[in-house]
Amino acid sequence: MPEPDALEPFRTLLGAGGVLTAPDMLARYTLDHRELMRGETPAVLRPRSVEEVQGLVRLARRHGYGLVPQGGNTGYVGGATPEPGRHQLVVSLERMTRIRAVDPLNFTLACDAGAILADAQAAAAAQDLLLPLSLGSEGSCRLGGNLGTNAGGLQVLRYGMTRDLVLGLEVVLADGSLFSDMRHLRKNNIGTDPKQVFIGAEGTLGIVTGVVLKLWPAQGFRATAWLQLAEGAPLPEIAALVRRETADLATTFELISASSLALVAEMRGAPIGLRTGPGGAVLLELQASSARIPLDDVLMGTLELLMEQGWVEDAILAQSEAQRREMWTIRETIPEGEKHAGGSFKHDIAVPVSRLTDFLEQGGRLLAERLPAVRLSFYGHVGDGNIHYNLVVPKGQDRLAFSRTVEAGIAHDLYAIALALGGSFSAEYGIGRFKRDLLARYTDPTRRALMATLKRGLDPDGVMNAGAMLGEE
Amino acid sequence: MPEPDALEPFRTLLGAGGVLTAPDMLARYTLDHRELMRGETPAVLRPRSVEEVQGLVRLARRHGYGLVPQGGNTGYVGGATPEPGRHQLVVSLERMTRIRAVDPLNFTLACDAGAILADAQAAAAAQDLLLPLSLGSEGSCRLGGNLGTNAGGLQVLRYGMTRDLVLGLEVVLADGSLFSDMRHLRKNNIGTDPKQVFIGAEGTLGIVTGVVLKLWPAQGFRATAWLQLAEGAPLPEIAALVRRETADLATTFELISASSLALVAEMRGAPIGLRTGPGGAVLLELQASSARIPLDDVLMGTLELLMEQGWVEDAILAQSEAQRREMWTIRETIPEGEKHAGGSFKHDIAVPVSRLTDFLEQGGRLLAERLPAVRLSFYGHVGDGNIHYNLVVPKGQDRLAFSRTVEAGIAHDLYAIALALGGSFSAEYGIGRFKRDLLARYTDPTRRALMATLKRGLDPDGVMNAGAMLGEE
């Protein structure tokens, strides 16, 4: 337990604005994004440089503090929320936002871990390049958080997860030393690659301070369609046909269920010009960097095949940017629609794409039997096998109480279905503090033992984000 | 040091054909692919199942043996060669070759680590799918070796390195326990990902026994061209233009220098119908899974732009599969051409693509000054910044003696150039036993300390491939 005046050396190191302690200043750092947990911290540290991060790690060790790295605080699992009773200082990277370099001939970008994702995207776009990582929270999430959670998002289908975009990494380790591997190389086979352990480690192994990411040519050409799926339309077969017929130029293949669309309409208080078919709807988008690719023809031809198969009843091609924008807005405002209806309990499930139909059928049956009155909102990145399968809080019920009931009950039945299909209880969001019990329950002991070995090896004193992920294992 | 009859329990475990000890049988396992090192082993173990691998690891520990995992023994750095004096048994995965599953709707393949790469490619192709990993040695290398070395190859430009293809992994750990993570999932964010540490670890952390790989739709449509580069043609700019104009459908962008082409002609004893320009030649290929993409038009349009820029003097489009085959054969037989001329010392250099011209200029100047009589053969995966920069053994000189001279001298000057440009001394081949000294010399201590921490944590007794990579660090 730290001494009462132990924050003074941090003030000396980080300067006046570098240490926040006023309760009203701390509030936004200690409440998680979904407002499920109110954490506690003596102070928020706001370093301005890698050297300051190294210094504060050394000070924290000396004075008996733990550290919780935090980016934009937009996570869904409480991974950046300091726990009451742990004497954890929040390390906010929000003042380390520099775009360090954009190399248009090497297609790479280097930046501080505190850079906001949208700013990094903009720096790439300014040179006619694309940083394909794209999330709902891109205007406020920071790259360090994206790295810590191996963020997915809207373009995984074509470009992969955050890990797939990383070429270089810079990490302040638990002893305050610096691991710097910021090379802009696509190939660098020099044995075991230490940077991989920090990606997805949720800040439990070190504090990521910088990253080098792959870029692509800007995708200036697009073709977008809204597909109304027929009764019983087989999503895996549709996704496979789309991959093949579009030559993998599809960047988006998002399922939108009728119930999710209805939630958006209710929030707007007006009917929506687009509708789902009996099998729901799909937002499909192709992108290319060159006008030489006849995207509209490719999309039309693909849709014709899907209709010939009887899988798609009707399809609308976006004829203008406004129409395209409307399709996207519907998809992007589903979470708000859920919030407007009273909030939702969010399952973040993945299964192999080939088992999607099985999951939806089995999950649907289970819910119809056990919770017939609860509205289900499901949507998501079907091209990756990732379904957001959310239960809307029934009118009049308390959101937290409902969440606890679902969490302790039917959620486990849904996870059991997903796992039996070779799936996962956590596709995108990670473990943090809210899913520790799920990690313990649904992953095998050898995996957890390996994770613990890595933790002990890299952070033997448990300075880094203690309590997250493995908890006390 | 093991007792003399300590191999008996291995025979009981693995059966008659499972333990080879006759010197003439051992020879092909103990000589490295490039014939630079003759290793030594008491026996080669040939397990048939994961359980047998677990059993032999436990026996090895009990009887004081080390283990050297081996796939196709096609590596370039002695990573699979047992060292004299270490009492290391070779664990050959050559009897674990099963293709476990191909899922055409999920675009995944699962197989044993002993599967030959070409067999895995064929299993995918049989279902109209593509496993894009493609190497010169694909007819004999095995996937466990590809994983251990994070193999690159001919299609990294579009599909990435081996790591980028891995979804699942199965590893027998140093204590004989099994880490099995063979899920076919594109998204599974459940914290620190232990499987990443085994990829590229060259068998020093465990024995990979199985893998799940991403597949793509078969690329049934191709367009291929041979480009003659103009004097001073800027490779980085050309590569960037090609990426953009072909919408990243380029799978191959291989530089072939005039000297490399000459070596192939000499080996054939006949002139070659294709020639390089003053800046060398590039083999460029686009691929697509759909006839809806007008690949010939895309390629033609791109070539026109390159010629308008004055970067390409002339270009030949392959008009038939035979012509395409001939272009590829030239590229693929450069290593044989070098061998025919007396062998070569191979530098496996990477730089950021944007620094390629700088590297070639500086390297060329250095060689012209210091080794004016030595033939340089350079070629390779320019789209990835990876140049094979090889010095042909001069007529009449002993290959090994020449190699030692280069290795101790000018090689370091070339590495210094590459490193100053943000590059690497090892793009593809890895460290193994031949580049241990380079690893120690050219990587920073924090990186090596992290690698050693991982080694100690996962293999505290040094059972797994001791001597490879970190050596005695």
Automatic annotation (TrEMBL), chains A, B:
PROSITE patterns the UniProt entry points to: FAD_PCMH
GO molecular function: catalytic activity; FAD binding
Residues spanning the membrane: none
Assigned keywords, A-Z: FAD, Flavoprotein
Taxonomic superkingdom: Bacteria
GO biological process, one term: respiratory electron transport chain
Entries under SUPFAM superfamilies matching the protein: FAD-binding/transporter-associated domain-like, FAD-linked oxidases, C-terminal domain
Residue ranges of domain FAD-binding PCMH-type in the record: 37-218
Manganese in keyword set: no
Coiled coil start-end: none
InterPro entries documented for this protein: FAD-bd_oxidored_4_C, FAD-bd_PCMH, FAD-bd_PCMH-like_sf, FAD-bd_PCMH_sub1, FAD-bd_PCMH_sub2, FAD-linked_Oxase-like_C, FAD-oxidored/transferase_4, Oxid_FAD_bind_N
Homology family: Belongs to the FAD-binding oxidoreductase/transferase type 4 family.
Protein name: FAD-binding oxidoreductase
